[in-house]
């Protein structure tokens, strides 16, 4: 049985987790093209290496980052996103204000 270490809940069965995609730099969602956004959301390099990925622990609703080797599928490290990110990205605040003013 494959196990993964959740930074919040400890060692858990892999069936409790959902893959959330590769951690990579996000383009500016207001100014980027549709192609740039699609590349960010849907495509990855797909090479043999250690990648940082978003993972979600379904029972607790907790998102975290895992470092995984794509050839061996070995999970090398897991940690809370606050160790990498120190600010939150808000997607709809400017658009929501504009929409409210139009109504």
From TrEMBL:
Q: Mind telling me which InterPro entries this protein's record contains?
A: SoxD (IPR006279), SoxD_sf (IPR038561)
Q: Name one GO biological process term.
A: tetrahydrofolate metabolic process
Give one GO molecular function term. sarcosine oxidase activity
Q: Which Pfam families match?
A: SoxD
Tell me the Gene3D superfamilies matching this sequence. Folate-binding superfamily
Q: What is this protein called?
A: Sarcosine oxidase delta subunit heterotetrameric
> Which species expresses this protein natively?
Marinomonas posidonica (strain CECT 7376 / NCIMB 14433 / IVIA-Po-181)
